[in-house]
Design a protein that fits this description.
The protein has 393 residues and is of the alpha/beta class. The chain folds into two domains: 84 residues, Urease, subunit C, domain 1 (Roll), CATH 2.30.40.10; 289 residues, Alpha-Beta Barrel (TIM Barrel), CATH 3.20.20. The chain is 25% helix and 28% strand. The strands form four sheets. Strands 6, 9, 10, 11, 12, 13, 14, 15 and 16 form a nine-stranded parallel beta sheet that branches. Strands 1, 2, 3, 4, 5, 20, 21 and 22 form an eight-stranded mixed beta sheet that branches. Strands 17-18-19 form a three-stranded antiparallel beta sheet, with no helix packed on it. β21 and β22 form a beta hairpin. α8 crosses α9. The chain is globular and about 65 Å long. The protein starts with 6 loop residues before the first strand and ends in a 5-residue tail after the last strand. 54% of the residues are buried.
């Protein structure tokens, strides 16, 4: 899959740097970190190599905060080695870091899956970084459960949350919950104190309840407009609060199925692209084509690129992150730079990762190169080749 170079140069026709675009531009990478970002052509020789893409765009690697699976891998039920398969798929879609996301399931099953993610994070190889685990549930409102099974939802509990956090051994990074449920404030405040990002989702909360949750420390809204109370002119609902409250980062699935293109434009204009974190909500079917696949214990059928349960409920997506970036740019009329940052810089900031999500000296050399058609040519994770188009897997 590649090796780590002591020093290598990557150049491209366009470079999406932290503060501006450079055309052309290049970066110098040493021991997995970016040491120099510069405009113009690079020096004629690099100590250990030069990866040149004169017609390509060099961008920061993409960070996906909501990945249930992909390439046939279901993260609720797999072993650590399956993360290698998923990692290769994610790298091919431009993802260099992600949060394995576990939907509601029996609590011990969720805890075991966290342990598997921890074992996978310890494995070596040029794969996207496992930044921690995102628990999407089980503390969700049954009225807005979406594809989550009703029997898997639970009442909020501080002791239960503390035990899950203890068992996670520092791997718990995000929890999606419904803030209107009894006991939510105590759980939110405890998680925030433990530096776990709290996301609001699968909620029937109104505007004031969402504003209260933001005051408690919640900082994200999971797949905005989906599985939540929508906007009404007399009660803006959870969706209206998400767009208007500046403390909240808005999770957006830009597959043009979960959200109409015009809705993407509304999100960008009201919230601003800087508050958007693009996510895929990808399930095991991502990258696999048509057929039946799993989402935990449930069967999902993918037809015409849309995964649904037997009753027709949307069940995650098969979106590739790089496609979501271009979908958002086109539908919301934002620049490619803004769309890339919605899938890199914004999620990195949300998680407090100063060394990721940007091309700048001192940052991790998590990079991707795009061709003129928006396809991924190359993905580097800390300077190692995780994907190169045309190379054997």
């Amino acid at each position: 899959m590649g090796r780590k170079h002591a020093s290598v140069i990557v150049s491209a026709g366009t470079l999406v740097a932290a503060d501006r675009d450079l055309s052309p531009g290049h970066v110098v990478i040493e021991e997995g970190r970016i040491t120099q970002v510069a405009s113009g052509a690079p020096p004629s020789a690099a100590p250990d190599g030069h990866l040149a893409f004169p017609a390509g765009t060099l961008a920061p690697g993409l960070i996906d905060l909501q990945v249930n699976g992909g390439a046939g891998v279901d993260l609720l039920r797999c072993g650590p080695e399956a993360y290698d398969v998923l990692g290769r798929y994610l790298a091919a879609t431009g993802v260099t870091a992600f949060l394995p996301t576990l939907p509601s399931a029996p609590l011990e099953e969720m805890r075991r899956a966290i342990e598997v993610a921890g074992a996978a994070a310890a494995r070596r190889g040029p794969f996207p970084h496992i930044l921690g685990v995102h628990l999407e549930g089980p503390y969700l409102n049954p009225l807005r459960r979406g594809a989550h099974r009703a029997q898997d939802l639970r009442h909020l509990s501080i002791p239960e949350t503390i035990e899950t956090h203890r068992r996670a051994k520092g791997l718990l990074r995000m929890v999606t919950l419904a803030p209107e449920l009894e006991g939510a404030e105590a759980v939110v405040r405890w998680l925030v104190a433990e530096r776990v990002t709290v996301a609001i989702g699968h909620t029937d909360a109104g505007y004031e309840e969402i504003a209260a949750a933001a005051a408690w420390g919640a900082r994200m809204v999971t797949h905005v407009f989906n599985a939540m109370r929508g906007f009404h002119h007399r009660e803006p609902g959870a969706a209206g609060a998400a767009l208007l409250l500046p403390a909240l980062t808005v999770g957006v699935i830009a597959d043009l199925i979960h959200l109409h293109p015009a809705t993407l434009a509304v999100i960008a204009r009201v919230a601003g692209p800087g508050r958007v974190a693009l996510v895929t909500d990808a399930i095991s079917a991502a990258g696999m084509g048509r057929g039946n696949f799993s989402l935990g214990s449930q069967t999902v059928e993918v037809r015409d690129g849309v995964p649904r349960l037997a009753d027709g409920t949307l069940a995650g997506s098969v979106l590739a992150m790089v496609r979501g970036v271009y979908n958002f740019a086109r539908a919301a009329s934002v620049t490619l730079r803004e769309a890339v940052q919605a899938a890199s810089l914004t999620p990195a900031r949300l998680l407090g990762l100063a060394h990721k999500g940007r091309i700048a000296p001192g940052a991790d050399a998590d990079l991707l190169v795009l061709d003129r058609d928006g396809s991924v040519i190359l993905t580097l994770v800390r300077g190692e080749v995780a994907f190169r188009r045309g190379a054997p897997p």
